[in-house]
Amino acid sequence: MSFRAVKAGFRQQAIQFITDPQWIIPSLILPFLFTMVMLFIYRDVTGPIVLQAVLGGGVLGMWANTLFASSFTIAYDRMNGTFEPMLCSPTRIFDILLGRSLWNAFIGLLNAILIFIVAELIFGTGLSLMNPIGFFFMLILTLFSLSSVGMLISTSFVFTRMGSFFSSIFEYPIYVLSGALVPITMLPTSLQYISYILPPAWGIDAMKYSAIEGYESMMGVSVYTDILVILILSALFLMASFLVMSKVERRILSDGSATRY
Amino acid sequence: MDDSDYAIVVENLTRTFSSHHNGNPKKVAVDGISFTVKKGEIYGILGPNGAGKTTTIKMLSTLLIPTSGKATILGLDVTDEKNVRTLRNRINVVSGGERGLYYRLSGRQNLEFFADLYNIPKKKQKKLIDDLLELVELTDAADIKTENYSRGMKQRIHIAHALINDPEILYLDEPTIGLDPEISKEIRSLIRKLSDGGKTIILTTHYMFEAEELCNHMIIMSGGKIVGKGNVTDIKNSISNSSSIRVVTEREPVFAIESIRTQMNADSKVTKLLNGRFVTKFTIPIEYNDLSMYENIFRQYNIKNIGVEEITLEDAYLALVGDGEE
């Protein structure tokens, strides 16, 4: 892996973000909308459920940002004609995407923080976190896990100009399956099994564990197990995206689809 | 000549694309081409749209895997996956045009991004980028966003980007297309400067004068095949059994052109409007170069001038490309 390329991806994405006003929509307006929607869904309840609502909004914001920004950067490169020069360089596309993904994760974090601020200041939810430092750590871990899933989905954008089709398919199921919208225990058993292989589901579980006193975690495991599972699953997702990306890179050179947009 | 004297050796290179339109399952974009390029020369790939020039460049620059055949670049087989990243460090491509830049980034930031992708240490980057910006005369515009660049400036930053890894082989895919004559001249001068510096340059172009001015050797492609090969003289001589006739008339000789095509098996025609007059040029087999024959055909259009001209590269190109021209 080339750390210089990862850094270049991060820096390029940061400059694009700062100089392009269109990102205000996913970064500032969407979090507000997500929080509002979630609080309206749970408007008649109090206590930990409100936290579930705000947490859901936060994860929705992070996921939207991670998936949208990480995946669509390649679609942008295809449209912009910058994908070919990138491909022509000795650097792996994976390294560049990883750097961009790290920037998007950083923005996702700001997004999540903004949602908590909006919830507290505008909607007056009166949230109290049991372990704020632990919660923040779990928030970062969840973001990392979301990025690992986002990286795998972004391979579809390298594979085909129709990548947005795949990301759209995965966007909403992840909201549900990761427990961002409703607790995983409320899902049908068969769907719960899918949730268990998604690292963000464990991240959200760990966040609830640090936020809500007396919270009974998913599958009754300790928060340390949550952390371990997040790390293992995220690493597996990242490894899978690295391998898939290498195959996809070779495939697009073979079928000549690298420069189609 | 030793193998090490060649930058590129291409043998029977073929590329097909799957296409299920019109019941035709495969389109042959490049059809068994072979040629060699010596180190340090400017080598032209000429041909009309759809001739297979860009597909050839893509295969030689590792952006497209050939369907069959072999291409050896700097002694490395381009089809071998193990060689790809090594090769990419030693070559670069200018595709050019309006695309291929991050428009929200300045020229310098674009170059910094690509310098990182070529793993150039930060310490070296500043001087390298300053030197490249100076070479392409963009020092003053270095920190302006590229969305504000003119087309000529974009093309020059493309060239600077392609030089970021100091490539031994530089592929230039129609580097002057759409540029005004002054900028085109500057780009050609830059290409010559790079060649003088020892770089091997592969140039695709539509413009005959550009090929004639820059290229040591060239191939002419049509329909995916090579239809002409060699230096400018070789290409002209390849149609030495032909003559080029030039007729100036006051009116557009619509029927005369058709008549020449059907009666004399003329390979080409060019009609230009020049000071209100029509200049018609065509290349015909040498046995048909009796001017009185053409005086009869063109008389009704009021002939102002008629004569046999020396065959130009453009005449040869049109004769060789023939029906392949779109």
Write a brief structural summary.
The complex is a heterodimer of chains A (261) and B (326). Chain A is mainly alpha-helical.
What does the secondary structure layout of this molecule look like, with pairings?
The complex is a heterodimer of chains A (261) and B (326).
Chain A: H1 3-19, H2 24-41, H3 48-80, H4 83-88, H5 93-122, H6 132-159, H7 163-177, H8 189-196, H9 199-211, H10 223-255
Chain B: E1 6-18, E2 26-38, E3 42-46, H1 53-60, E4 68-73, E5 76-77, H2 84-88, E6 91-94, H3 107-117, H4 122-135, H5 151-162, E7 169-173, H6 181-196, E8 200-205, H7 208-214, E9 217-222, E10 225-230, H8 232-237, E11 242-249, H9 254-264, E12 270-274, E13 277-285, H10 291-298, E14 303-309, H11 313-321
Parallel strand pairs in B: 3-8, 3-9, 6-7, 7-8
Antiparallel strand pairs in B: 1-2, 1-4, 4-5, 9-10, 11-13, 11-14, 12-13
Helix pairs in contact in B: 3-4
What does this structure look like?
The complex is a heterodimer of chains A (261) and B (326). Chain A has helices at 3-19, 24-41, 48-80, 83-88, 93-122, 132-159, 163-177, 189-196, 199-211, 223-255. Chain A is globular, with a radius of gyration of 18 Å. Helices cover 77% and strands 0% of the residues of chain A. Chain A has 10 helices and no strands. Chain A has 261 residues and is an all-alpha fold. In chain A, 49% of the residues are buried. Chain A has one domain (3-255). By secondary structure, chain B is of the alpha/beta class. Chain B has 2 domains: 3-236, 3-Layer(aba) Sandwich (Rossmann fold); 241-310, ACT domain (Alpha-Beta Plaits, 2-Layer Sandwich). In chain B, the strands form 3 sheets. A 6-stranded mixed sheet of chain B has the order 6-7-8-3-9-10, sandwiched between helices. A 4-stranded antiparallel sheet of chain B has the order 2-1-4-5, covered by helices on one side. A 4-stranded antiparallel sheet of chain B has the order 12-13-11-14. In chain B, α6 (181-196) links the parallel β7 and β8 (200-205). Chains A and B meet through α1, α4 and α10 of A and β1, α2 and α3 of B.
